[in-house]
Known about the structure:
By secondary structure, this protein is of the alpha+beta class. Helices cover 23% and strands 32% of the residues. Strands 4, 5, 6, 8, 9, 10, 14 and 15 form an 8-stranded mixed sheet that branches. It has a 5-stranded mixed sheet with strand order 7-17-16-12-13.
Amino acid sequence: MKLATVKDRDAEKVCVSTPFGFMPVEGVNAQFNRGWPCDMLTLIQSGKLEELNKWYCSGGQRELATLKDQAIPSDQVEFAPLYRRPRKIWGIGLNYREHAADLSEKAPVTEPASFMKPDTTIIGHEDYVEIPLQSERTTAEGELGIIIGRKCKDVERKEWLSVVAGFTTIIDITAEDILRKNPRYLTMSKSFDTFFSFGPLLLTPDEIEDVMRLNVATVINGQAHARNVVARMTFPPDFLVSFHSRIMTMLPGDIISTGTPGAVPISQGDTVECWIDGFEPLINPVKDLRNVKTWDDRSKH
């Protein structure tokens, strides 16, 4: 099953992606006397996502076809982030050796180079990434995201999928010049507003035949800047889920952004995308706040 969060006036609501558009879960509830949460994070935290997916896979998809006239056409939908208040966002640095070479750094080989990001960085599909006033070299990174589906601790690698709600596309942003000043500035370089885009779709694990075979690409202005396959990660998804669950309890809605095949510098007017096999592209235009400030200053005179 493929899910999205779409904007509906002042609300953001979960929809099921179908061949005929996006069907709001609230409409499914009304038509079929169900009680599934209509907010994505609540749906995940309640444990009802698995129940909804079982319904979808065991006949619900056919039932949805009877509601075609209630679906939002794909060309009219406006996406929001999948949700806005995860308890934790884990990022993984230098998880592809090739990306480490881009930064002239040695890739970690014993433990992942993990870091955390605040939820105030979150934006969604087609929202602006804003280059902050403090940075003269900001980069964007396409990544595969893992969304945790249940509270878990000390997960065995072979059991990792049992705690995963789904996967998504992510664009992680870094003020690279700040990071290069001192590696201890990693948190600052990763934490500016608009520095984490995710969505527009969540794919449940049954939608992906083999996660390890997924190609992930960072794309700038329509051209793939860097591309790699998940199997070439130093620390693959099963390891990342198990490893981080041994550090701290993982909670429903927690996100692990698994690392990028390559970062690309971005500037005013660029469009950055994350492409992953089987997913709709995640797309974000770029705005440089220094340009905005210059324009505002000029307009005052």
